[in-house]
Amino acid sequence: MSAEYKKAKGAAFSVAAPDHDHVFISSKQHLKECQKAKKDELSFLAATRQMFQPTYTMLGHNWLDERGAEGIGYVKAVGTLLPERMREIMPNMRFNIKTSFNRLLRDQCNPDGSKVMPAPALIKKVMCDLNGYAFFGSELGQDKAFMETVLEYNELVVIASEVLRITPTFLKGWVGTFFRDRGGIQARVFKMINGVVETRLREKADREAGLIDTPAPSDLVTWTIDTAPTELNWGARRITYEVIALWFGSLHALSATTSYALYDLCLYKEYLSPLREELSSEEFTNFMNTTQGLPLLDSFIKESTRHNPMEAMSGRRQALKDFYYSDGTKVAKGAWTCVPAKAILQDEQYFPDALRFNGFRFVPHKANVPDGVRKALQPEGPSKLTDISPHYHSWGIGSVVCPGRFYASVAMKLVLEHIVQNYEVELVDPKAERASIWRSYVLPVERTKVRFTPRSA
Ligand code: HEM
Predict the structure, then answer these.
(1) In angstroms, what is the C-alpha Rg of the chain?
(2) pLDDT > 70? residue 370
(3) Cβ-based neighbour number of residue 145 at 10 Å
(4) pLDDT tens-digit profile of 133-164?
(5) Does this complex have an ipTM over 0.90?
(6) Does residue 5 line the site of ligand 1, with CB under 6 A?
(7) How is residue 78 annotated by DSSP?
(8) Is the pLDDT of residue 180 over 80?
(9) Is 323 within 8 Å of 330 (Cβ atoms)?
(10) How far is the CA of 79 from the centre of ligand 1 (A)?
(11) 2-454 placed in CATH 1.10.630.10
């Protein structure tokens, strides 16, 4: 894809795949037209459905192709209500991370006090616990059996959806049933979440009738209920599906991105000292009080996402009918149009010294960067991890952008803060494979091990 992007010099290019063709765009004009396409022309939700195969991975749930036809309450729940409450829940998020690390590393001790763990597997569990708290509060979030089941379900969906995407249509029903019935895991997860949703709906009705005066818990189940489209009268079942869909959209990306940042902490040790200085300063208190700040850590994570994008493409839209860009480029019905995000992130025009890791390339000019730490400057000036820009498409391409990025930024910072402040980290085998490529995904290799040595040891 990168070679095609270079050859195309801004023009659109096509890449065929077993399930459908891809038409890649990167010019300002194409992006503008893609963002402005009508809802019945290019669809984000149709592409998402193809990615996740919910018919087989979410107990037959299906959503409409037209974004907004069933409301976009989830965008408010995730992008507004969750960030608004973040300051309130951040101390508990921090405590949750500490508890997870202590529990997960407890049994791995070597005689010298160090602990060795496969890094992505560890991060996935930490993030699962953390997300569990943000999504389900203390009810299901503290329920060990539920958290183990929901993590197992997550893994199943990732594998099942990829297998189903390339399964010929005539075999899909058969292969899909195999995944759907596997140990009844989908039904179990559904039942547990649905139970909580039913209770919350009952309590909401009681609260509105003045029968109880306890406040609703501050978590995504509550906010998904509160932002559900009233005119559609969603019951518990539909709300449960919405919560499950949000869960998938979040855990996988969060874990992969944080795992890469952990590898980068192991590989580029010169950043540890300035990061520790920042995390021990007023900056951290300010971050806990405002959710903002920590410019060095923010830039380090952003550079890690640039250097190791977990997906080669972004801004997927499926054509619901033949679609033509104004230069005549055709996206045939069923094909996807998308952006070659990884190739753009490695383009020297936009990211000088693009192939090198420059942890502080995005920091504000006034930030306290010590001499000797590389800091390539961006032509467009400083930017934050959560910013959307025409060349950084990790959160999407505009018209649809990730509303979870504010929470993701805080969650990643809190996990990395815990690691940086409490451990020295190193790759057990610096030559071990860190990333594996499957189609457009570039995922952290599960078995790659990191040694955690407590800093006080
Ligand atoms: C590092 C972590 C994450 C990454 C890299 C990421 C990336 C993305 C991307 C690329 C899109 C699609 C935009 C498009 O195709 O144009 C998206 C959409 C979305 N993401 Fe995230 N995401 C992350 C974390 C999260 C989290 C933690 C949540 C929820 C708590 C979340 C919720 C959503 C939702 C609801 C959408 C759909 C938005 C809409 O329909 O308007 N994401 N995300």
Answers:
(1) 22
(2) yes
(3) 10
(4) 999 887 777 888 888 888 888 877 777 777 77
(5) yes
(6) no
(7) I
(8) no
(9) yes
(10) 10
(11) yes
